[in-house]
Design brief:
Blueprint (H helix, E strand, L loop, with lengths): L1 E5 L4 H8 L2 H12 L2 E7 L14 E14 L2 E14 L5 H12 L17 E7 L10 E4 L18 H6 L2 E6 L10 H6 L14 E5 L7 H14 L2 H68 L4 H8 L3 H7 L2
Length: 322
Amino acid sequence: MIIHVANPIYDSVFKYIMEDERIAKTILSALLKKEVVHVTVRPHEYCNTTRDTLSMFRIDFAATVREKEGNEIKDRIVLIELQKTWLNTETLRFRQYLGAQYNNKNNIREADEKGYAYPMVAVYLLGHKVGNIKEPIVYVNHDVFDYNGNVVAEGNAEPFVESLTHNSIIVQIPRLQGNVNNRLEKVLSVFDQTNVEGDTQQVLKIDEDKYADDNDMMYVLHKLTAAAANSEMRQDMNVEDEFYKAIEDRDTAIMQRDKILKEQSEQLSQQSEQLSQQSEQLSQQSEQLKNMAKALSESGLSNEQISQMTGISITQIAYLLE
């Protein structure tokens, strides 16, 4: 059955669903490819950039991840710095935010005398494509090597290393395109913008039957359905649409201005080239007249006679013969 849900690419909708721990665990478990047993939202999580530039929605989590180490099952805390944006964004903005997290004393492990930090994963949900990367989701993971290029097996788990490096997950929402080949793509399919309904981006049409065997995903859909029916949520989405419309109008005006400036620059360049060619032609003509006047003068003709023969004024002849 086709249902209509709120589009989670909107900041207001995304915030609404990610505040729900069950949904946060579902999405983060799929992204990390590990079992997330507990999630807490970190303080100051909704620190967007100013709205006069562009929106970069940020939310920070402390996730308790269950992992198998040898024959033991251990839980450990991982910090997840999730950043979402609709628009092409300067990477410096992402780096500045990560820098702030590295500098945050609250990210230091409790009761750690050496001041080691919790391991961190940076997640980027992008509403645009990244260069020529065709895969919708890519993982950028660090590793530890010796001089000969061999992996140091115990290197990654060393707190000193984890404190100074981090892994990244990059999701290109425009490249989801309805492809579901694994658990993560199934979870992220609710972000697939090919399911936009009508003239507005606010609503997606989803085939609920595709998720009937997945209780967690059915829960996500019901949450998004509730968001679509919430009048305050729709108003928040309207505000975001107005903001992005203003951004698009501004960018369009800038593009048109740049196009006009480029055309004017090309015209000035052509005119400059034409003037240069005309100057070169005049210089050649002047040299020819000078050579002719010199030859006639050397033949014994006076300036008056040369003027009568060539039609060049006596003043000009005098100038050429200087």
